[in-house]
Amino acid sequence: MIALDTNVLLRALVDDETAPEQCAAARRLIESEGAVSIGAVVFVEAMWTLSRSYGYGRMQVARVARLLLEHPKYRVRSADLLAGAVARYERAGIDFADAIALEDARSERTVLHTFDRKLARQDGAQLVAAA
Q: How far apart are CA 12 and CA 131, in angstroms?
């Protein structure tokens, strides 16, 4: 098994016309391995980059996330937490990082306290009142 950095994972996922050799190399590397480990930080950074740098919409990001989480070749760390965050991200209209924070708090059986009014409207979050 090998682990991937975000830039390698992204080159495997996206046909980046500015780096076709890297895309091909990333895909060859992954194809040659039996299993590929994706750390939680790499996963989150990849979803953020797909959204911000590649212009993927919410449903496209969620689709890619689910494909990685469900693909038999990939071993995504904290997969259960991230799968819950993807589902929340799809339905709640919040940022992926906020969805992860909510799922993490839920897994700890705690409430996420926030100053973010939009996030505070979510189940499992509570607005902190500023004095």
A: 49
* Contact predicate 90/58, CB 8 Å: yes
Query: Please, which residues bridge with residue 40 across strands?
Result: none
CB neighbourhood size of 108 (10 A)? 9
Q: For 31-82, what is each residue's pLDDT tens digit? A: 999 999 999 999 999 999 999 999 999 999 999 999 999 999 999 999 999 9
Which tokens belong to 45?
Answer: 């950074």
The per-residue b/e assignment along 61-83, b for 16 or more CB within 10 angstroms, e otherwise, is bbebbeebbeeeebebebbebbb
Q: With both helix axes pointing from N to C terminus, report the angle between 96-107 and 79-92 in degrees, rounded to the nearest 10.
A: 130
Backbone angles phi, psi at 15, to 5 degrees: -80, 85
8 A C-beta contact, residue 30 and residue 73: yes
Q: Note the pTM of the prediction, 2 decimals.
A: 0.89
What mean pLDDT do residues 106-126 have? 95
Strand-pairing partners, residue 75, are: 37
What's the mean per-residue pLDDT of the chain? Answer: 95
Q: At residue 131, does pLDDT exceed 90?
A: no
